[in-house]
Amino acid sequence: MGRPSGSWLLVFVLVWWILAGTGLGAWVAGAVAITVGMLVHSALGGEQGARPTIRGVAAFAPFFLDQSIRGGLDVARRALSRRPQLDPHFIRYRTSLPEGPPRVFFVSCISLLPGTFSAEFDGDEVRIHLLSDDGSGRPRLGRLEEAVGRLFGVPLSDSEAAAPGRVAGAGP
Asked: What are the backbone angles phi and psi of residue 9, rounded to the nearest 5°?
């Protein structure tokens, strides 16, 4: 069992604060959720591999909040539209993030992006379901990958960062 760190505690507290706000009732439940999160984190290996930096968390938080709001508004717009613009399909995206926490966190965050869902994760390749392709899905994946790289202090090479949306292939 790994040993949890203060950095992960800060990450869990920050995520809870963004999701639940500042109400006392939210923080009573938050104390339980954060404790469980820290225990699960420890049970799954704790500090193995790369971990977020404080500077990375501070930079990722606004990106996370922005994408969460955009994703929620996109879902609401589609749900309330008389004729939602849907053209569902799958793409494959190859990430250059290292194995372990950065890659897992990247895959977990994909569903925050408007109209996306990570359907399958195998090695460095992710199969992603898009509700429609307005051309912004792949660049958003590239920006997310870069943001996660910064969060964990893992720089992406210049050639990779210059080509956001690296896709290994389209289709099911």
From this structure: -60, -45
Q: Where exactly are the structural domains of the chain?
A: 85-170
Find, among 154, 62, 73, 70, the residue nearest to 106 by Cα: 154
Look up residue 77 and give its two tokens: 């717009």
Domain 85-170, classified CATH 3.30.200, yes or no: no
For the whole prediction, is pTM greater than 0.85?
no
pLDDT tens track for 10-49: 888 888 888 887 777 788 888 888 888 787 777 666 555 6
Instruction: Give Cα 74 to chain centroid, integer Å.
Output: 17
- Beta strands (DSSP E) in 8-107 are 89-94
Euclidean distance between CA atoms 7 and 13, whole angstroms: 10
| Residue 44 three-state SS | coil
Q: Which two tokens stand for residue 138?
A: 């792949």
